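Quick one: structure for this chain?
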Amino acid sequence: MLKLYKAGNSICSQKVVITLHEKNLEWETTNISLFKNEQYSPAYLKLNPKGVVPTLVNGDDIVNESTLICEYLDNLFPEPALIPANALSRTKMRKWSKAVDEHLFVGTREISFSAMFRQKLKEMTPEQREVRFRNVGDPERRARYTSTYEHGTDSPYVFQAVANFEKLFADMEEILADGRTWLVEDRLSLGDINLMPYVARLDYLQLLDIWISERPHVQSWWQSTQETESFRKAVTEALSDKEYANMKEHGSKIREQIADLRHSYIRDYLS
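Got it. Here's what it folds into:
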């Protein structure tokens, strides 16, 4: 039996769960509370030395990193195929996954952090915050957390996140302009699945339209995503009313700042 270690509203966990649903697989779930620092417990660190979620265990196989987990599942359970058979199409699919891993993951984290998790950290005692930051082993990651905690949307990392999403949605609009539904071979692939939770997070934060209000093809892609059964089960129906309300409340507070950052990026770098 597959066993998935995940966190409730974790975007990386969500894309793995979408893939599991697409494959019609059965699995056991162990939920890891990130704000209780359960990801740093000795038992979990044996499975995932970085102390992050998700982690997939399949017998003796332990697979970390959500993009690799999704590819592992597609290789192990090849039907329905989510990785194209054509070599060039596989490369195009991995281009979208690469964008997620290199830019959107940290970008969404910074935007989410400035909107929601920053407030949670403010409500902690100084000692609790110190433990939280100390447990982040990667110096660059710790610097990002610290900057976003101290400066919110004024952090340069948030500006970079806004710029990276602008580049992504521009690329999507161009690719989808031929009328296709999905990004690669006009069939659902891991390229789409890897993007879905990140776009969803912006939507739930009341921020998505800042980027796509004038991009009809991306809007159509997002509508198709929301109608996908695997997405509904893994994301839409899995989140609680409280989680939706929390994202809406906190995202709305930074909406004006995010829109201003996008305007500044377009004015200063694209005009």
